[in-house]
Automatic annotation (TrEMBL):
Pfam families: ABC_tran. Keywords: ATP-binding, Nucleotide-binding, Transport. One of its GO terms (molecular function) is ATP binding. This is ABC transporter ATP-binding protein. It comes from Zhenhengia yiwuensis.
Length: 246
């Protein structure tokens, strides 16, 4: 298995927040995490990204123990905004500068991804000049350049309007076909989770645990037909039940 978390537990101030969480990601997989507010999703992401250490449990990348190590997973937090006073090219090339590249090298490397991320013609523009969808794609590219080993995205598309969201979903599915790295993302949008994911983990309980996992067959189709199909509605009903049951 490419990425693995085993038996992760975490308490704050003597209160158990998450307990015995184990999950796995294969290369190229898109997996989502669904659960009510306050259940511990962000806490789990902080641990998976190495920002926080678990009280117990371990995290592995290609069988190497990476528990508590930052710089391996790329973590895009909920309010991960672009810097308004920097151009798009300088915003996205920032992680490369932090890795020690010169400004010229960083800009050159970042430029090679602009077409794939739908950002052509935006290099010298400022974030305010871009649409919401483009800003989000720029933020995703910046995260990807931070580390291409694993993407952890905390509600990456939640601030977008429905139509922009629809376009960005199609686009993300396309670029995932070329990415080796898997994506684990938090969402509160069940439709989004079904549409994008290979698998969905349900987090529930107090302390939070992974109570159920759904494998989504036949998704990853960007047509509108899927969201109105019987298969889709059945998944939605089962997922809602799993969230409520816990
Ligand atoms: N550093 C901390 N110190 C103390 N308590 C914390 C800390 N971080 C998180 N918590 C608590 O852990 C619980 C889970 O919070 P967390 O942010 O992980 O939930 P979440 O599922 O991501 O919520 P949301 O969907 O609203 O973002 C909350 O009760 C929160 O107050």
């Amino acid at each position: 298995m490419y990425f693995k978390a085993e038996h992760i537990c975490k308490s704050y101030d003597g209160r158990k927040i998450i307990e015995d969480i184990s999950l796995e990601l294969k290369e190229g997989e898109l997996v989502s995490l669904l659960g009510i507010s306050g259940i511990g999703k962000t806490t789990l992401f902080n641990i998976l990204s190495g920002l926080e250490k678990p009280d117990s449990g371990h995290i592995y990348l290609e069988d190497k123990d990476i528990t508590g190590q930052t710089g391996i997973a790329s973590y895009m937090q909920q309010k991960d905004l672009l810097m308004p006073y920097k151009t798009i090219i300088d915003n996205v090339s920032l992680p490369l500068l932090l890795k020690g590249m010169s400004k010229r090298e960083a800009r050159e490397k970042a430029s090679t991804y602009f077409k794939q991320f739908g950002l052509e013609g935006t290099k010298t523009q400022y974030p305010i000049q871009l649409s919401g969808g483009m800003r989000q794609r720029a933020a995703l590219l910046r995260s990807y350049l931070f580390s291409s080993k694993l993407m952890l995205l905390d509600e990456p598309f939640s601030a977008l309007d429905a139509i922009t969201k629809h376009h960005i979903h199609d686009w993300y599915l396309e670029i995932m076909k070329e990415m080796r790295s898997p994506t684990l993302f938090i969402t509160h949008d069940i439709d989004e989770a079904i549409l994008l994911s290979d698998r969905i983990y349900i987090m529930a309980g107090n302390p939070g645990r992974l109570t159920k996992m759904f494998t989504i067959e036949g998704a990853k189709i960007s047509t509108d037909d899927f969201t109105t199909s019987e298969v889709f509605i059945t998944y939605k009903k089962e997922i809602l039940k799993a969230i409520k049951e816990a």
